[in-house]
Specification:
203 residues; 11 helices; globular; sigma factor activity; RNA_pol_sigma-E_actinobac; RNA_pol_sigma70_r2; DNA binding; RNA_pol_sigma-70_dom
């Protein structure tokens, strides 16, 4: 990922470095890193996936919709869809991929409904996200997470999936319906924009 020519390269590098540590707040990413072969070989039930992935999906949704209650609704709907489609999924990886796409689509729908109702609340209050998750973060992390709320929804999706979800550009493209090239360019612009937002707030 490269920064636009007009972006301060060192500052963008700092933002990327902070973003790259967000995966540490995703327990599913940590579990997969520790036991990758075991995680892929042991058959799992819907209950197993719910227990191991629910909070990760809620945190993902919080980063996309900026509200705990809305995030939990999105994830509940995603798991309901998973239950209905369980027989069509080939393995655990496919099930988790289904959940991720359902959370993204549900978050998009939630944001559209907010815009339609003209009731969207700016996501700058601490209680708009999981207090536990934010408390675990440094001031620098909190600043980056808060600034994510000022990005366009597509930019936010790409950065959250890349840095919190740990997905590759190809995986993000599959999850969001974008081309790989669009994912790459969107991520580059989003990181630069994030840097602009944070720099403006600190002036």
């Amino acid at each position: 990922m490269t920064a636009p020519d007009d972006a301060p390269t060192s500052y963008v590098g700092d933002i990327e470095a902070t973003l790259s540590t967000l995966a540490a707040f995703n327990p599913v990413i940590l579990s997969a890193d520790v036991l990758p072969s075991r995680a892929s070989q042991v058959p799992q039930t819907i209950d197993d996936i719910y227990k191991s992935h629910r909070m990760s999906m809620v945190r993902l949704a919080i980063l996309l919709v900026d509200d705990m209650g809305s995030a939990e609704d999105v994830v509940q709907d995603a798991f309901a869809g998973l239950y209905r489609n369980w027989g069509n999924l080939r393995d655990t990886q496919a099930a988790v991929g289904y959940l991720r796409i359902a959370v993204i689509n549900g978050s998009r729908s939630m944001l559209r409904r907010r815009r339609t109702a003209r009731a969207y609340v700016p996501p700058h209050e601490l209680d708009a996200r999981s207090a536990e998750s934010m408390a675990m973060m440094s001031t620098e992390h909190q600043s980056v997470i808060t600034a994510l709320g000022d990005l366009a929804p597509r930019q936010r999706e790409v950065l959250v999936l890349r840095y919190y979800g740990g997905l590759s550009e190809a995986e993000i493209a599959e999850a969001t319906g974008l081309s790989t090239g669009t994912v790459k360019s969107t991520a580059s612009r989003a990181v630069a924009k994030l840097g602009d937002i944070i720099r403006t707030r600190h002036q």
